[in-house]
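tokens incoming
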């Protein structure tokens, strides 16, 4: 995957979707359970419209530009957008330490230990110290970090875990992988050509605007050229 190409924010959604679909991605439309107004929902829907990848172990990854692991990506990462959209708020960053001196500023924890995942039931907002405990989970092969909200799998070193990512391309299999998610956060798995008509209208409109500018330029030639001396 060419990160330089993927980080070009001027690329159209249509081009990005075509790339995501070609690499085994899928198009989703999640229900706005919090009834957020369009301006509040836009950071999430902007990401959603580009498509997602579903791993064979059930994680959902956004287009690479929104991934936490992408140093050149957008400053508002996918897991932050997802947390705001599905959980209705962002982490509180100015909370004091507790009676033990442990840092209590909040973070978005990944219960799957995959930093790029945006699946809402893999994310939980919790104190810094609780999130760090999850990095030492699974010494005995099961979730043993002691947090009330349990990890969905045991911790692995991120570099090792990253090598195990495999995308599920089959839509029927994707529905099975996300069946539990569907019960809590309803969604529709869209057809690959769902945005075709909309993209075609946008493309035709842009072409008309471009032709209009070109015609205007041709009808108003510059008269500022200097005379020959």
């Amino acid at each position: 995957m060419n990160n330089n190409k993927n980080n070009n924010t001027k690329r159209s959604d249509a081009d990005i979707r075509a790339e995501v679909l070609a690499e085994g991605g899928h198009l989703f439309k999640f229900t706005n359970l919090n009834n957020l107004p369009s301006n509040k929902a836009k950071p999430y829907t902007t990401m959603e419209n580009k498509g997602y990848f579903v791993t064979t172990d059930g994680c959902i990854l956004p287009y690479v530009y929104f991934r936490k692991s992408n140093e050149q990506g957008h400053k508002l990462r996918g897991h932050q957008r997802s947390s705001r959209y599905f959980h209705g708020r962002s982490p509180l960053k100015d909370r004091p330490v507790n009676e033990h001196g442990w840092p209590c500023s909040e973070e978005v924890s990944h219960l799957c230990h995959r930093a790029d995942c945006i699946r809402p039931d893999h994310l939980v907002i919790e104190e810094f110290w609780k999130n760090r405990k999850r990095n030492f989970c699974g010494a005995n092969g099961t979730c043993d970090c002691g947090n009330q909200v349990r990890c969905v799998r045991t911790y692995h070193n991120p570099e090792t875990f990253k090598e195990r990512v495999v995308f599920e391309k089959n839509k029927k299999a994707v529905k099975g992988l996300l069946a539990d998610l569907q019960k809590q956060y309803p969604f529709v798995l869209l057809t690959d050509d769902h945005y075709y008509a909309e993209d075609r209208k946008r493309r035709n409109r842009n072409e008309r605007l471009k032709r209009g500018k070109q015609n205007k330029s041709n009808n108003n030639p510059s008269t500022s050229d200097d005379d020959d001396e």
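note: DSSP finds nine helices and six strands in the chain.
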